[in-house]
Here is the input.
Amino acid sequence: MWDSIWINTRLATMAGARYGAIPDGAIAAKDGRIAWVGARADLPGAPEALARDIHDVGRAWITPGLVDCHTHLVFAGNRAREFEQRLEGATYEEIARAGGGIASTVAATRAASADDLFAQAARRLEALMASGVTTIEIKSGYGLDWQTEARLLAVARRLGEAHNIRVRTTFLALHALAPEFKHDRAAYVRLVAEEMIPRVAREGLADAVDAFCETIAFTRDEVETVFTAARAAGLPLKLHAEQLSDCGGAALAANYGALSADHLEYVSDEGIAALARAGTVAVLLPGAFYTLRETRAPPVEKLRAAGVPMALASDCNPGTSPIASLLTVLNMGCTLFRLTPEEALAGVTTHAARALGLQDEIGALEVGKAADFALWRIDGPGELSYWIGADLLQARVVAGAATTK
Ligand code: DI6
Ligand code: FE
Here is the structure.
């Protein structure tokens, strides 16, 4: 006997990163996992005989729950003033070099209590959930000292416990140089590599380690020092690479077997080849591209031709991607980066799951995977990429537990 069955539904299973549409489907959950999925006509009996709870969902489409695999969700305050400065002509790099940018969010975040950070992030989390998100990755990186970084990771875990959502945390101390170390970069990198990473691993605070490889952030050598420490601590790797220039970050990430390389506007042909060889996921972040009014899009055609799996994520952060709707990101991925709607949906399900190392657990409607899905009031899955700001979600299910909107 199954716990629940959803009938009178149309399914996009996303198995093998394709829609895999089933026009009159059924899906069942037991103990939080998918126990059966397929055409209703193939059910081994009447629904009443098969499951305790029967959900007739009125022809709703069901997709895997959406996975937002790159966010900086937990921070204090906002940077609306900086947004105005950019409208007046200042660039992101100028603002960052003048001590604004990430540094201003770090100051606000250090001053905020855990409860305050929780309350501010919860509002953004709830908005993302309303766009169908059932798994979210949350990075630290606005603390840059042990106490605050640990607080951010703990708040991220607490958000997951308080909401019907899965949370994966990522330690991003190499996001910006901590102000205390302005005159000694090497000492900061050493502190992160030798003290913080082993402690993050020991205390189980993070599921992965990330770094920002960029001319305004950290060099490849600095990233390597931290990657080596993360590897020794058994933590998987991710990298912000080639967002504003080609620093060779994608190849570095690939050489270290990273789960993902993220942004990639300036990735070279060698970088693409390295990603393809390593099976590292390219995480594209059109919200940041849009916000910064970048003109150079990531080389999607080349990534596609090389067979690099492409994920899409919100990059939700106060500086370059103040966006709290993953559906809007699907639209941007198609309109700005020329992904197909099917690729965009794979980018927030199957491939996003891989970018978190969770490809065996979530991201497709397949027997044995977690019963995480989203129910939509749409006529076809392409609508998820087509509408902007529409109210499409009917319900979300995480580990078999439904939250109706
Ligand atoms: N790349 C980004 O776009 C964000 N972080 C990063 O490494 C920007 C974060 C911020 O401006 O606060
Ligand atoms: Fe980011």
Observations:
- The mean pLDDT is 97.
